[in-house]
Design goal:
It is built from 18 helices and 24 strands. The protein has 499 residues and is an alpha/beta fold. It folds into two domains: 233 residues, P-loop containing nucleotide triphosphate hydrolases (Rossmann fold), CATH 3.40.50; 238 residues, P-loop containing nucleotide triphosphate hydrolases (Rossmann fold), CATH 3.40.50. Strand 13 and strand 14 form a beta hairpin. Helix 14 packs across helix 15. It is globular.
């Protein structure tokens, strides 16, 4: 039954895929002019529920009401035309076109079929100015940072006069300053009466920005509670169905002798890293901190050989290694987990089995024939040891939740038996339960004598699992220290050193 105090009512929503009941009678009610957080572990069904709302999936059962009217969208365009907009965690944009083209794609303003660049520019500028987004409407999307592209996507949603706006992990690539700006935009939209569905794994953000919180677990609705009545511990307990008193496992690893030396490493093409030097010990977890643009990712890519260096050297066990490309790096005992999982981590159109074996293909090939039995065994090991939630090895990896995709990629690299693991934002977009499992895995790897380097934007994460933390600032090493002797303030001070 329709209730006019809600802008959105999703009642008894069900959705099944082969072997998986993704949604089981889920409820979601969003009041106009509020921020409604949607929380749950990876695989809880959050994204599937939003895809049913947005017309990507057609629900098998249940009812969706928008402003009291029954709605069923068969594609995203219908949803947007009816005031439902969604900013996805993995941005889908036409990077070779400019900002205003991306905002008005498929509905260019003009007269008699002739597109008016003038009107398009003015309308884009008006929306960007209103939201205080400092981006040129004529700028090419490929030239913008991830955070700027995300702001453009929010501007596009606003251009549809959205009554309902879904934000999926909107702060995963943002600095603290950019998060504050995003919250300012959200508050403006809330004041205009927009109902905002906010998906995030960051507890502090949820408690700061939300009015109501809905918790999901294993495809079911668990509870909807006013944010003011919640604490981090209570949210975690509802999400995982148990108490999770410690966010980080105990550090049981014992760093030993130096395994890796990086000396005066400088990127071949500027701006990049400059004269970076550090040591990594066997069994050590070294964190890399820094602000967006500090060149943390470039450091890992240069060590792995997918970004070239003009000066410096890399020594493993005291011997110089030349990682001229990724294939050579793997052969030399290096593994790289990339930040952009969808763009550079997974083969989305292919199954879990393929995604597991691809970095280790030489091991499975005999006289040009693949050993399918060994591939199946190793994929089974990955699924079991990484606790991947999947119906089978033949499931397309793109149909898994982000956390489960990440577990498959980690398993893939472990099968190459690396000595040095380079992990770029390994828990980005992953829920608190899966994070704990990955932290434990990282510590276990260090216990086995691996050298582990972790880039993370979450300072509590670095302080919680690392032995030492190296801070990057504008491509240079700004400082390095023992994790148990550093504070978040110390790290931020070093991160701003060369800006």
């Amino acid at each position: 039954m329709a209730d006019t105090k809600y802008v959105l009512q999703m009642t008894d929503i069900c959705k099944e895929f082969p072997g998986v009941k993704a949604l089981d009678n889920v409820q979601l009610k969003v009041r106009p002019g509020t921020v409604h957080a949607l929380m749950g572990e990876n695989g809880a069904g959050k994204s599937t529920l939003m895809k049913c709302l947005f017309g990507v999936y057609i629900e098998d059962g249940g009812e969706i009401l928008i402003e009291g009217k029954k709605s069923k969208f068969s594609n995203p365009k219908q949803a947007m035309d009816n005031g439902v907009a969604m900013v996805h965690q993995e941005l889908n944009q036409v990077l070779q076109r400019n900002v205003m083209d991306n905002i008005w794609l498929g509905r260019y303003p003009g007269n008699a079929g002739v597109v008016s660049e003038k009107i398009m520019y003015e309308e884009t500028k008006k929306i960007l100015d209103e939201l205080e987004i400092d981006v040129n409407p004529k700028a090419k999307m490929a030239k913008l940072s991830v955070s700027q592209r995300q702001m453009v996507e929010i501007a596009k949603a606003v251009s549809y006069n959205a009554k309902i706006l879904v934000l999926d992990e909107p702060t995963s690539s943002l600095t603290n300053e950019e998060v504050n700006h995003l919250f300012k935009i959200i508050n403006k939209l809330r004041d205009k009466g927009c109902g905002i569905i906010y998906i995030s794994h960051k507890m502090e953000e949820i408690l700061q920005i939300s009015d109501d919180v809905t918790i999901m677990r294993d495809g079911k609705w668990i509870d909807t509670i006013p944010a003011k009545d919640l604490t981090t511990d209570k949210i975690i307990k509802l999400m995982v169905g148990r108490d999770l008193t410690n966010r980080f496992p105990p550090k049981t690893n014992k760093p030993k002798d130096v395994i890796l030396e990086v000396k005066n490493l400088t990127g071949a093409y500027q701006p990049s890293i400059r004269e970076v030097s550090f040591e990594l010990r066997k069994g050590e977890i070294l964190g890399i901190a820094g602000l967006v643009g500090s060149k943390r990712t470039e450091l890992l890519e240069t060590i792995f050989g997918i970004a070239k260096h003009s000066e410096g050297e890399i020594n493993l066990h005291g011997k110089k290694v030349i990682n001229s490309d990724s294939r050579k790096a793997i052969k030399n005992g290096f593994a790289l987990l990339t930040e952009e999982r969808r763009a550079t981590g997974i083969f989305g159109q292919l199954d879990i089995k393929f995604n597991t074996m691809i970095a280790n293909i030489d091991r499975y090939s005999k006289f040009g024939v693949l050993d399918n039995k060994k591939i199946i065994e190793d994929t089974k090991w990955t699924i079991n040891s990484m606790k991947v939630k999947t119906p089978s090895q033949k499931t397309l990896i793109r149909s898994l939740s982000g956390g489960n995709q990440q577990k498959v990629i980690i398993g893939r690299w472990l099968l190459t038996n690396p000595e040095i693991l380079l992990l770029d934002e390994p828990t980005r977009g992953i829920d608190v339960g899966a994070k704990y499992e990955i932290y434990q895995l990282i510590i276990d790897l260090a216990n086995k004598g691996k050298g582990v380097i972790v880039v993370s934007s979450e300072m509590p994460e670095l302080l919680g699992i690392c032995d030492r933390i190296l801070v990057m600032s504008n491509g240079k090493v700004a400082g390095i220290g023992d994790a148990d002797k550093l504070s978040q303030e110390d790290i931020m001070t070093m991160a701003a050193k060369y800006i």
